[in-house]
UniProtKB/TrEMBL annotation:
<dbReference type="GO" id="GO:0006629">
    <property type="term" value="P:lipid metabolic process"/>
</dbReference>
<dbReference type="GO" id="GO:0008081">
    <property type="term" value="F:phosphoric diester hydrolase activity"/>
</dbReference>
<dbReference type="InterPro" id="IPR051236">
    <property type="entry name" value="HAT_RTT109-like"/>
</dbReference>
<keyword id="KW-1133">Transmembrane helix</keyword>
<keyword id="KW-0812">Transmembrane</keyword>
<protein>
    <recommendedName>
        <fullName>Altered inheritance of mitochondria protein 6</fullName>
    </recommendedName>
</protein>
<feature type="transmembrane region" description="Helical">
    <location>
        <begin position="68"/>
        <end position="93"/>
    </location>
</feature>
<keyword id="KW-0472">Membrane</keyword>
<comment type="similarity">
    <text>Belongs to the AIM6 family.</text>
</comment>
<dbReference type="InterPro" id="IPR039559">
    <property type="entry name" value="AIM6_PI-PLC-like_dom"/>
</dbReference>
<feature type="region of interest" description="Disordered">
    <location>
        <begin position="30"/>
        <end position="53"/>
    </location>
</feature>
<dbReference type="InterPro" id="IPR017946">
    <property type="entry name" value="PLC-like_Pdiesterase_TIM-brl"/>
</dbReference>
């Protein structure tokens, strides 16, 4: 006599097979039954030994393909709603951050360090976060639409209020006006820079042109006028460099010929390509940085350290740049793991790289304090 428990298991198994079978007539009800016997109904599968059905609320509903599709649709709809809700929260948070007032009230406590705030416009407070970390370099990617310059990583991230003037020119003017408000106009003194710990330290404003250079660069020059008319831009007059609180450097699609078209006066400089210095007259009167992708110039870092060949390339590149009087900057540095990133930073500083391209401002400041890397005190300034 078959075990009733086994019969119930077989019935459930056969129901499962029947549901997924294209030809239900071939599904046998029991393991030892003939193929001609029809599969059990849901009620038969759950009938007790005395032939009575359980209460209706205990009867499981038959799982059909339609119910499967409905359940999948409900899951996807729930995920979509969660995604939309998350984006709304992020949008509201971004609006709050955008309205955070910029302030650099602790300028007297910050000692400048040779770090460059990469993609500075992505930060909670563009310019101000970099200044509080002590960075002497900030970066703005600019796009020309009409006669206005917008700042953003790509054209889809551009916003109407994030213009070059709003994010960078106006804040720099406000900061420098506060720093130079107490100067006695009766004496002809050079304007002071942003950092009180080193008033002669210049701030490098790296302008990365994303749209056509011949059209975009003249608009950049025009919008620099508030800094220019106050005498705050580093300039070259008759081949002599006069450092100011702000040094403007053009990169990306910036045309070198537009930088150098005026042979007697210029107040913007070029970011020379580090791997293409030969055959060009790149010098401190027309260029400030010489930059290149770290991965392209040095290569991938395997096993946490540079090889001898990579170290040789690094030293040769730094030496060639310094012979021309240019500042070396590598971008696209390793970012993870953090231990390898910090080690590469240490190697670059020890080998004479002039400025670190960083995304993690707090991490860079922490490493400077822990490792005792050089800082720009009153007696140690980058242009000197």
């Amino acid at each position: 006599m078959p075990n009733p428990g086994d019969t119930g298991i077989d019935a459930v198994r056969d129901r499962f097979r029947f549901f997924w079978s294209r030809d239900s007539s071939t599904i046998a009800r029991y393991r030892d039954s003939s193929e001609d016997e029809a599969p059990p109904t849901p009620a038969e599968s759950y009938t007790s030994e005395d032939g009575l059905l359980p209460p209706a609320h205990m009867m499981p509903k038959q799982w059909t393909r339609k119910r499967s599709f409905i359940m999948c649709g409900a899951v996807w709809l729930a995920m979509l709603l969660i995604f939309i809700l998350l984006n709304l929260v992020l949008l509201l948070a971004r609006e709050v951050w955008d309205h955070t007032s910029g302030d650099f009230g602790e300028a007297s406590l910050v000692v400048p360090i040779p770090c460059h705030s990469h993609n500075d416009y992505w930060r909670k407070r563009p310019i101000y976060d970099a200044l509080e970390a002590g960075c002497i370099g900030i970066e703005a990617d600019v796009w020309l639409y009409g006669t206005e310059l917008f700042v953003g990583h790509n054209k889809w991230s551009l916003r109407e209020k994030n213009t070059f003037t709003n994010l960078y020119i106006d804040p720099l003017v406000r900061i420098l006006e506060q720093r130079n408000a107490n100067l006695n106009n009766s004496f002809k003194r050079a304007p002071e820079g942003i950092y009180e710990a080193n008033p002669v330290q210049t701030m490098i404003l790296l302008v990365d042109l994303k749209t056509g250079g011949p059209e975009t660069w003249p608009q950049v020059v025009r919008q620099l006028e508030p800094l220019r008319e106050r005498g705050w831009l580093t300039k070259v007059v008759n081949d002599k460099i006069h450092y100011g609180p702000i040094t403007v450097v053009g990169t990306g699609n910036t045309p070198f010929e537009l930088i150098t078209e005026n042979s007697t006066y210029r107040d913007a400089f070029f970011d020379a390509p580090l791997l293409k210095l030969d055959g060009h007259d790149f010098n401190p009167t027309n260029s400030y940085y010489t930059s290149v992708s770290f991965k392209k110039a040095i290569g991938t870092v395997w096993f946490g350290d540079l090889t001898e060949a990579q170290m040789t390339n690094l030293r040769n590149q730094v030496k060639e740049a310094h012979l021309r009087g240019l500042k070396v900057r590598y971008w696209d540095l390793p970012a993870w793991p953090v231990s390898i990133r910090n080690h590469i930073w240490d190697v670059l500083i020890r080998e004479g790289v002039d400025i670190l391209n960083v995304d993690d401002l707090k991490g860079a400041k922490k490493e400077w304090d822990l490792r005792g890397w050089p800082k720009f005190t009153a007696n140690s300034t980058m242009p000197a």
